[in-house]
């Protein structure tokens, strides 16, 4: 946001309607700094984003250049000379499992060169199970919280179901965590990793916005 503002542009920030408070507070703080309309915060879901990005009056009529920063299916690409230990940490860390995968910058697709052994996935699973522990967010031992809502939970689970149906191999996760006090009935989903993912299936193409990694070779 700082760079386009510093370059003299106007900025519209579209946070989720379910978690808009930080962005709205920032806009409130900056309201005395910028002229009206320079920085706008417009919370909303799919309909809001669609209106912003497709309505012809948003850019065509006044002939102003428009840049959309979208992200969504970021890829981590592992080349043949990748350091395996660093790769394991990168795959886990890039996914932002702490807020479980609910980040536009999460590397939800992992492209492994065919020369990299499949055993690396076993190391990834061991690492994430050791480092990330689902639990109540107010507990200091918790390292991964729930997804934001029932709608998000159900959407993510539908992607997991479709991945199984479309032939992806479930390496780990895919269900609610078990045996953890205080989270029963919450919107928790285990860290989920699929291998043998093909480019044409849904989890390879659509943003899941949850703790699901698709591994391709």
From TrEMBL:
Originating organism: Oleoguttula mirabilis
Coiled-coil features, chain-numbered ranges: none
A single MF term (Gene Ontology): aldehyde dehydrogenase (NAD+) activity
UniProt cross-references to Pfam families, sorted A to Z: Aldedh
Family: Belongs to the aldehyde dehydrogenase family.
Enzyme Commission no: 1.2.1.3
InterPro entries in the cross-refs: Ald_DH/histidinol_DH, Ald_DH_C, Ald_DH_N, Aldehyde_DH_dom
Catalytic activity: an aldehyde + NAD(+) + H2O = a carboxylate + NADH + 2 H(+)
Chain ranges of the Aldehyde dehydrogenase domain: 1-56, 59-217
Record protein name field: aldehyde dehydrogenase (NAD(+))
Domain of life: Eukaryota
């Amino acid at each position: 946001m700082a760079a386009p503002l510093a370059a003299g542009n106007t900025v519209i920030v579209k946070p989720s309607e379910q978690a808009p408070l930080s962005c709205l507070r920032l806009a409130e703080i900056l309201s005395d700094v910028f002229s009206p309309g320079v920085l706008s915060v417009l919370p909303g879901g799919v309909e809001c984003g669609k209106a912003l990005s497709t309505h012809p009056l948003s850019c065509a009529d006044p002939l102003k250049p428009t840049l959309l920063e979208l992200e969504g299916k970021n890829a981590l690409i592992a080349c043949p000379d990748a350091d395996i230990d660093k790769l394991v940490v990168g795959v886990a860390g890039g996914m932002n499992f702490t807020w479980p995968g609910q980040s536009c910058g999460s590397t939800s697709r992992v492209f492994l060169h065919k020369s990299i052994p499949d055993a690396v996935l076993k190391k990834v699973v061991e690492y994430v199970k050791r480092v990330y522990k689902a639990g109540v967010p107010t507990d200091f031992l918790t390292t991964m919280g729930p997804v934001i809502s029932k709608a998000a939970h159900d959407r993510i689970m539908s992607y997991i179901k479709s991945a199984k149906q479309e032939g992806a191999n479930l390496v780990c996760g895919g269900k609610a965590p078990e045996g953890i006090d205080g989270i029963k009935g919450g919107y928790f989903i285990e860290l989920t990793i699929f291998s043998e993912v093909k480019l044409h299936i849904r989890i390879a193409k659509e943003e899941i916005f949850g703790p699901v990694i698709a591994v391709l070779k």
